[in-house]
UniProtKB/TrEMBL annotation:
GO terms for molecular function: cysteine-type endopeptidase inhibitor activity. PROSITE patterns: PROKAR_LIPOPROTEIN. Residues 1-24 form the signal peptide. It comes from the Bacteria. Pfam families: Inhibitor_I42. The keyword Signal applies. This is Proteinase inhibitor I42 chagasin domain-containing protein. Keywords: Protease inhibitor, Signal, Thiol protease inhibitor. Residues 44-131 form the Proteinase inhibitor I42 chagasin domain. SUPFAM superfamilies: ICP-like (SSF141066). InterPro entries: Chagasin-like_sf, Prot_inh_I42_chagasin.
Amino acid sequence: MKTLSALALPLVLGVLSLGACATAAPPPPPLTVTEAQAGPVALARGQALEIVLPLNAGTGYAWRLDREAPALILNGGSSRITETDRPGGPVATIFSYQGAGRGKAELSFTLKRPWEPDRPGDRKAVFQVKVR
């Protein structure tokens, strides 16, 4: 019986140490892109993505997401607007996502007043996101 318990302890410790090796690595740091960086974006699964789009407060203009990304590829889609201390000052709309699964998604944003019809000359920012 003493021999069995002497063998069991190293075996249990070995199994526990293997479990510690199997923990997943933390996701890469968040990636922030701006309107000037519109185009291809590479993202890892679990990595956060922030898209920062500028505008002027009080003008009636807002960034509109034209099409949602598939939830299997990108999670989130929340947005917030930064603050300014002066009327009409520069602010930004920040759209937040997280890479969920492998694949490609296109995020297209249009800057416009909500009551105006779409026009060919509308300002756009398009990001082709590839989650690896």
